[in-house]
Amino acid sequence: MTAAGESIGRRPAAYREPGRPADTSAARSRLPVSVVALSAATGVLVVAAAYTAGHLGHAGASWADHMYWLGQLLILIPVAARLLSRRALVASETVTIVVVLTVAEYLVKVCYSPAAFTYADELMHWRTATDIVQTGKLFTPNNLLPISPYYPGLEEVTSALASITGLSIFTSGLIVAGAAHLLFVCVLFVLFRYVSGSHRIAGVALLLYSSESLFQSFDSMFVYQTLALPFLGLTVLAVYRLAAPRAAGGRAGWFTLAALSAFATVVTHHVTSYLLVATLEVVTLGALVARDRRLVAWASILALVSAAAFAAWIVFVAPWTVGYLQPVIEGALQGFRALLTGGHPGAPPPASAANGPLENQALSAAAVLIMSVLVPVGWWQVWRRYRHQAWTAALAIGAVSWYVIVAVRLFVANGSELAGRASTFVFVPAGFIAALAVIRLTDNSLRWPVIRADVRRRAPVVVAVAVVAALVLVLNGLVNGWPPYWERLPGPYQVAGAERSVGPEQVASADWALAVLGPGNRFATDEGDMPVLGSYGDQNTVGDDGYLYTSPAFTQAATQQVQAQSIGYVLVDQRLSEMLPASGQYFPVDPNAGEYTRPLPLADLTKFNHVPGVARIYDSGNIVIYDLKGSAYYGP
Amino acid sequence: MDRSQADVAATALVAALACGAAASGAPTAAMTVLGIMLFAAPGYLLGQLLVGSRTAGLERVAVMAGLALAVPVLGGLLLYAVGVPLHRPGWLGLLAGVTLAGDVVLFLRRRAGRAAPFSWQPAWRVPRWQAAAFAAAVLVAAGAVGLARIGAAIQPQPGFTQLWLSPQQQKAHILSFGVTNDQGGTTSYRLVLLLNGQTSATWNLTLVNGQTWQRWVSFTGKYALTANLYRLPDLTHPYRYVSTGSTKAAGS
Predict the structure, then answer these.
(1) Which among A167, A264, A481, A504 would be 20 to 30 A from B107, CA to CA?
(2) What are the chain B neighbours of A490 within 8 Å (beta carbons)?
(3) In angstroms, what is the C-alpha Rg of chain A?
(4) pLDDT tens readout for residues B187-232
């Protein structure tokens, strides 16, 4: 057995690392890995400079935007060129390049909000972690994301680190999220390397995986999925080891690791738990296809263990999970049903792409096309070389999900977000299968008759095409991922502008609400202020409250809704009358999303000053808070 | 204890040092180093015990890191179940306890010849100039984060002043009445409290940036209270105002 355990499990007999002269030490690249790392670090520095320009008021300047993309290219081009190059890379170099890519993109994410969490989902989990640190207890209600306290894995680790070290929850959260994200990438690399028998394929597969739209954002944010993913990966890795002919370290140890990882997944994130079970079932299916009885047994056992743990957690600890996930699942199923029965699926077809500029849509279309072409080529490779290899068969089956999310994105109502969230998982098999295609196309191109005549001259062209294709994929992930084009750079306040709606005045008003009013009050607020008020302020915000802000006067109809929603306070940010919403919607649930052509009238926002019994209890200039209790909204 | 148990001794030492440093109120910098080492120690030991030293390289590191993260996740649940508060002593007890228990088991297994002895062999050597380039990359990346932090800190933010007049939580008859200056510098105000439209009290305030002025006001609900805050020298237009009841306030 080699140091990295290459001999463990069933190595695919067909594939070997390319052994041509170009891959020998005599043909080592002139671009050392350390230079790739230095270039990536310089790229992060250039992006940080662009972000600083944004902070200083140049967020809309094209030169600042160009600086951001220059920084990204300094990170991506050397990484892609080195991974796709046919010149020799040893395993440790491939790992280093993958780590450099992951860390560099994570630092880009950190540089966007380097002083505090500003992304809505991160603020939700910051609230749960803060509650654990302050109370020393789990399961404290979280008004902003009620399901979060019942999957406390991320917040447990973070609060433990913060408590022991004395670091802030923000800094501890960055460390935990960064470590978890890097760990997931490393586990994927190990798995891909074992399955393919090639660190080169594993490296390219990780490069393609990094092109999924959430890699640089949601998958490395301080959110529960970020920590659940490496636990899922470790469970699958343990299954690989358990099913290997010679399980290094003993099967009892690997089974314990698999069980611990599965339990940790269940405690940390609901959807990842579900997908862990689904993953193990797909592995079982692949093992059945390849007639690998040992793998069928172990994958089935771990799928059962995971499913039992997940079910027990839902029944005994987190029964609200069903109600939380039900609307999302039902919405997707309705869209599919409508699609299959020929009805209207509920959304204009290119709903996702319509949200961005034309060049973003073009890049998105190109990326979808490239992946859609690569996956069948990868399948062909699987059929030719790996069809008796259970893990590759499982990944080939899993790659079908690529076409499912393309269909969801195009045809299902709100399918863009669903497809985006699913891409974290779908790109695992799809990236691997596409990597088989990329490696085969770049290597085999040297055998094409037309090229054979002038191999030395043409080979770089083929690699360059592969690099460009990979860059299109990764850049698409960045362009159409998060942050969106309207807040690519941090900068001054924007109405309903996600991170750019988080500022000192919002935080001050939220802190005031918690200090004076106490936690958990029912608050009406807008899209931009909601995450801050719900996290820093620990208030129970209402999503469907646009009616309160879009009528010029008090109406009796509003009283019924206010009472039905038990709204006690209204937070009015008067800047809603000065700007259109950057995200297209003023309110969390906004039936007029994307249709606003002018800002809300100021009179609609200030009408509360004249409603009998309404108390104007807080005023910070832009933000005013009204107390509706005892007012006309609750009776004459 | 010979070198074959060096890792056992090292992890036990980390646990003892971390607990000692926490008990003596060591500064955050020291606790950060010891805390992160204490986080890693259970993962290392559990990795040694579960999958042995026969795994190597990246896989070994990944398994140990995953176990290190799983210990507080699953251990925190156990602590909560038995009623131990999840504060510093509880977390320290959990991580140090798992570390020391792992040390004992690994020590005994090695003594019995059922676990491989500790050995340290660097996986690969990096040429000096490459190491220098990596070090430069780390410095540049750290500089990038520093630049981003400076950029966020110097972002121009419009100043603001908070004025409030509100019933407190669970004390509806006592109003919290206050002003906080977040204008970015020392600011002078005049605060006027009106009772049913008549001036009840006036305060001249000079607050430095971040300073809060606060009072409590009894409130029966039978009269209307309005507070107008003027930012000097302008005494004609209220800069902020709050009110209870339905009276039309000055700034409306």
Answers:
(1) A264
(2) 152, 155
(3) 26
(4) 999 999 999 999 999 999 999 999 999 999 888 777 889 999 999 9
C-alpha B149/C-alpha B152 separation (Å) is 5
Long-range contacts of A52-57 (CB under 8 A, 24+ apart): A52/B147, A52/B148, A52/B150, A52/B151, A53/A489, A53/B151, A54/A489, A54/A490, A54/A491, A54/B151, A55/A490, A55/A491, A55/B151, A55/B152, A55/B154, A55/B155, A56/B151, A56/B154, A56/B155, A56/B156, A57/A491, A57/A492, A57/B156
Q: Alpha-carbon Rg of chain B, whole angstroms?
A: 31
Q: Tokens standing for B200?
A: 């009840």
Q: Which residues pair with B242 in a beta bridge?
A: B227
Length of chain A: 636
CA of B173: how far to CAs of A34, A64, B217, in Å? 68, 54, 8
Count of CB atoms situated within 10 Å of the CB of A613: 17
Choose from A523, A616, A622 for mutation: most chain B CBs within 10 A.
A616
Residue B180 contacts residue A508 (beta carbons within 8 Å): yes
The interface pTM score, or ipTM, of the predicted complex is 0.93
Residues of chain B with pLDDT under 70: 1-2, 53-54, 122-124, 170-172, 245-252
**From CA B145, how far away is CA A620, in angstroms rounded?**
32
Find where tokens 């800047």 sit: A575
Burial of A474 (0-12, 13-18, 19+ CB in 10 A): buried
Q: DSSP string spanning A521-553? A: -EEE--TTTHHHHHHTS--EEESS-GGGTS-SS
Instruction: Name residues whose C-beta falls within 8 Å of residue B97's C-beta, 6 or more positions apart in sequence.
Output: none
Cβ atoms of residues B162 and A512 within 8 Å: yes
Distance of CA A493 to the CA centre of its chain: 24
- pTM for this model (two decimals): 0.92
Contact by Cβ (8 Å): A111, A119: no
B24 shares contact with chain A (CB less than 8 Å):
no
3-state SS assignment for residue A34: helix
Q: Which tens digits make up the pLDDT trace of A496-519?
A: 999 999 999 999 999 999 999 999
User: In chain A, which residues have their Cβ closer than 8 Å to the Cβ of B170?
Assistant: 518
> Taking each helix axis from N to C terminus, what angle separates A224-243 and A293-316, rounded to the nearest 10 degrees?
150
Q: Which of B38, B69, B71, B91 to mutate to test the interface with A (most CBs of A within 10 A)?
A: B69
One-letter identity of residue B94: L
**Those residues with Cβ within 8 angstroms of residue A409's Cβ, 6 or more apart along the chain or in another chain:** A352, A415, A416, A418, A419, A420
Of B22, B86, B240, the CB nearest to A619: B240
**Buried/exposed A94-130: b ≥16 CB within 10 Å, e otherwise:** bbbbbbbbbbbbbbbbbbbbbeebbbbbbbbbbbbbb
DSSP alpha helices (H): ranges in A382-494?
390-398, 401-411, 415-444, 449-452, 455-479
Cross-strand pairs, A627: A569, A615
A159–B86 CB contact, under 8 Å: yes
Is-contact A14 A439, C-beta < 8 A?
no
Angle between helices A455-479 and A415-444 (to 10 degrees): 170
How close does chain B come to A588, measured CA to CA in Å? 25
